[in-house]
Amino acid sequence: MTEAEDWWATAISDISPGSIRLRGYAIEDLIGSVSYPQMVWLMTRGSLPSAAEAALLELTLVAAVDHGPQAPSVAAARMAASCGLDLNNAMATGVNLLGDVHGGAGQQCMEVLRSLVDSGQPVGAAATALVAAYKERGAYVPGFGHRFHPRDPRRDPLMTAIAEAVADGTVEGRYVEAALALEAVLAGGARPVPMNIDGATATIYCELGFAPELGRGLFVLSRSVGLLAHAWEQHNEPTRIKGPLPRSANPTYTGPPPRTLP
After folding, report:
1. Which residues form the domain of 33?
2. CA-CA 20 to 30 A from 27: which of 6, 41, 148, 167?
3. Quick one: which H or E segment has residue 132?
């Protein structure tokens, strides 16, 4: 039996008849004693956060919940719901669109911030060099700029909160310094490129010690709430098989003109 019991060995959950323990804590003790952000931290990190750390994590989970059907993931979830799929399938459809291009900027920004902090250079010089390298290859610096908002309204409350956390000693502030240095360099161009939600949440996740891969997972976790809400709303609407365009609009055709088959 030892080989079978070790097949899915885990340090996360200990389940037996009448007993559920998560990271060693009995579920009946956790219920009513810890918040959802604390539970997320416990499950992904193995320990309970401080109240201040949990409050920062909660801010990120609230901020990234939804961005309307302008977001392809939300539109896809709604289309799936209009095709009669159950809520879990509609949500999964939206989640599966969250990859490197749509949904991956937070993880990518965390990796950038880590590289700046670990570079051994003054953070301002490192940020200047990084932006120059991105410009040279025509790439976007992840976590900055937004296709919809001239200035992302979620940036300021998140960055204010992390600045206060630095001031009270909850976090060190090295990644805040790196993020603000990047923003300062990007503000000096022909068109200023302010930080967006991905940059702000990446800063908080780095300061809290999350791995970049978990940063993406936390974004997916947050956005799933929006996907659920939109899928449910669409589920309760009468329109069926709702595609990306209304029936009155046809995509522009760019192929050959009408022709006769030889």
Report:
1. 12-49
2. 6
3. helix 123-136
Question: 27 and 87 share a domain?
Answer: no
Residue 250 inside a domain? The answer is no
Supply the mean pLDDT for the chain.
Answer: 96
Amino acid identity of 140?
Answer: Y
**How is the chain split among helix, strand and coil, in percent rounded to 5?**
55, 5, 40
Could you tell me the two tokens for 37?
A: 């952000």
Q: How far is CA 119 from CA 71, 164, 176, in A?
A: 34, 26, 15
- pLDDT tens by residue, 25-83: 999 999 999 999 999 999 999 999 999 999 999 999 999 999 999 999 999 999 999 99
Q: Classify residue 84: in a domain, yes or no.
A: yes
On whether the CB atoms of residues 12 and 22 are closer than 8 A, the answer is yes
Q: Are residues 94 and 57 in the same domain?
A: yes
In 3D, which of 109, 261, 136 has the Cα closest to residue 199? 109
What pLDDT score was predicted for residue 230?
98
Residue type, 90: A
> Is 82 in the same domain as 97?
yes
CA dist 91 and 37 (Å) reads 21
Distance CA 166, CA 237 (A): 46
